[in-house]
Amino acid sequence: MTGRKSSSRKRLRKAFDASPDDSHPRSKSRHQDMSATIIEVALNGPWTRKHQPKIPVAADEIVSEAIVCCKAGASVVHFHAYDAKTGDQTTDVALIESIIAGIRDEVDALVYPAIRYMSNAEAIHASSGWRRYEHLAALGRGRKLDWLIVDPGSTNLVRYSDTSLEDAVVDINSPAAIKHGLNIAAEYGLNPTMAIYDPGYLRLAHHLVGRTTRLKTPMYRFMFSEQLTFGFPPRSYALRAYLELYRELAISAPWMVAGLGTNVLPIVAEAVVMGGHVRAGLEDFDLGTETGNLALVEATAKAIEAAGGKVASTAEARRILA
């Protein structure tokens, strides 16, 4: 680390740790004290090219972009599989397996796909947990996965620009479905990655994680947005609020900053100094952007290093989640 970067990191830490007592929200867990910062790349998301025109859709596109992003610093890859003919999302296990294999043939990366999209009527059904995770359970049995999505709550996903509410949805995850996902993660030895859209998500996640035996370390993902109405925008006060709740709940698991329809780069420096990790990519970034996944990963790596941090290798990412 250069003297300039070290001084920058010290100034940031002094500013963020200015509290006169030990009640400041900076976590002191062994996970957050790790010096390396994980970059996850979320390659495409559920948007389709209607809302995010630069996303990779075909399997070879997803594989190719994952590889170059990993070579640029990403150690975790998340993707949504698409039917190349229809342009719709799919949970076809063979297709997902081929994408994962294509990535791992070229780079060492932690890889995980999306859960099943469900209508509101399906999501509130008693069998929703089984149906949402059926393809992921099959992949878990085949030892194809590293992480597993478990979204611990429900929220309205509404874009400010969608004045007709034509594309507005309610993202529903029932408590039973959430627990089902955690049970699958425990059964197959997967790290749950848990999107935190508002503080209630974190409280429920912590409650259920503590009641799931043999569960590996979760990664909590603080979700921010500028273009959608949920939760907080990516601001320092918002990150501090989540970390204060972290402290109150005595959570020791690692966390990262992420979002939907937003740019989290303005809070990356603070996240690095506070011991967090960062998600980048077109699933999260401003909708309609002409920026690509590689540029977003490169910008994230640069921001981490500018804050005095070090981009984690895949081996380091595994140790952080051990």
From TrEMBL:
Gene3D superfamilies in alphabetical order: Aldolase class I (3.20.20.70)
Region listing for Disordered, in residue ranges: 1-34
InterPro entries (alphabetical): Aldolase_TIM (IPR013785), BKACE (IPR008567)
Zinc keyword on record: yes
Signal sequence, start to end: none
Keywords in alphabetical order: Metal-binding, Transferase, Zinc
Basic residues composition bias: residue spans: 1-13
GO MF term list: 3-keto-5-aminohexanoate cleavage activity; metal ion binding
Biased composition (Basic and acidic residues): 21-33
The organism of origin for this protein: Rhizobium fredii (Sinorhizobium fredii)
Cofactor(s) it depends on: Zn(2+)
Protein name as it appears in the record: 3-keto-5-aminohexanoate cleavage protein
A Pfam family hit: BKACE
